[in-house]
Amino acid sequence: MKKTINHIIAALSSIVLIASCNMDLYPNGSISYNEEGALFTNEKELTYLENGLYTSYRSGFYGEYSITEEVMTDGFNASADFGNNYGGVHRVDEDMNPGDYYIRDYWSNRYSAIKNYNVLINGVEKLPEEYAALGAKAQLVKGEAYFFRASAYLDLIRHFAPDYSASTAAVANSGVPLVLVYDQNEKPSRSTVQEVYDQIKKDLDSAYVNLSSVAGAKASQKVTVDAVNALYARYYLDVEDYGNAAAKANEVIGSKAGYALSSSVEEFQNEYYKDAGTEAIIQLFANKTENGSGTNDVYTYMASSTSDVKENENGRYFNKPYFFPSQKLLDLYEETDLRYQCWFTVNGENKLTGEVYPTFIINDFTKDVTIFSKYLGNPDLTSSAVLNARQKVKPLLIGEMYLIAAEAQYRSGSNEAKTTLAALQEARGASASATVTVENLYNEWFKETIGEGLRLSTIKRFGNGYTTRTAQPAATGLIMEGANYQNKSVDAGDYHLNWPIPTNDIQTNPNIVQNAGY
After folding, report:
1. pTM
2. What does the radius of gyration of the chain's CA atoms come to, in whole angstroms?
3. What's the rounded Cα separation, in Å, for the pair 261 and 252?
4. Rounded CA gap, 148 and 305, in Å?
């Protein structure tokens, strides 16, 4: 039995190596699980298991796990050199199907992680009396596992199921399979949307009880009560409980941790370049050799050249992005908006780094085109002068809490919505909206959370599709053109807004019903 315990611990801790070496691996490790005996027998083993849980959680952010929905929607245009990366989901055509790698990976990442969370939760619940001294620490780790599982199911339901509504929440097979106990032989059917959200709430309630003593802290590497409240805020917004959504979001905004919106170029540099700011409710560990998450490099792909092709202002460093921000997105920002100034490289100038980086597309350099550089990379996470788009993972940021509070207040008819939205806009250097409308709330979500992997849930929650991805005039000749590229439109009822269940799961589990249209 001791051998089985050690194998489980090794499997969980080995995910650190798997995730940091190759995010294309599928799935994230394997656990051999036996319900008999103790999952852990001392604090060191419990810590190994806890580290494995954090690695499972961290591995699901950035890279393909946020890029897929961002390039699927209306914020980006594929460059002429994009090499068909994310091609099916960007075109939203017949290639966006149950066999799509990016969609498959999103599904498998979350369910592989859920397996780990279930093993830990079950292991703590069945901890033999002889290890009672580990109880307090075990309950904290169990609370983290509940939080992670709630997060995973919230991600799954937002991507693979219709948006929550009173008329659709109870429809059979509308949600995703609920797997709460590890059983490799189980073939679960899809639960309803309501059942999945009910489970998310149960997990959050359990996490809150176990983690209520863990105070929030800026850029915390561990789950805190503020993180639980932030996830509560997402949950309540989704299920249209606007009073609780606003209350939970405001609880985080007013936390003693002192989260603060970046409101100067220097503060943006600290937050979005050096990973040393005041906005992150959680900021997970990373170093040069052990990152464990995806990288958002499709927007920049910084490279260098030793040839004499062309010298540029920053030595021989340049950007070669696969996707450019659409003019539709850029037009939403005022020139005074610090998000526009710091998250986009305009005419080659990047305010986060203070450097000039030309763009190299179709075998030539240009500075005229604007690129998205929110995730250019933390210089402490690269061993060379070439920034690699690696940033410390920030699953929850304080800016989203302002958006949730403002939207919830507006939808519940509260006059506080204008004050909340203005606090976000003015901190960012933008003009405060004279009145709060559905349109400016929707646009503020677009501007504030661009690149974070929240675009699809925003589009679905507001009941929108999108009309075209108007391209930058300067990108003429530099992007892919046609009906499925810069002219792509997706109706609010388009079936692609609910991602397909991956082929492997449909083939191996006859109890799973595919989403309509695929």
Report:
1. 0.93
2. 23
3. 13
4. 42
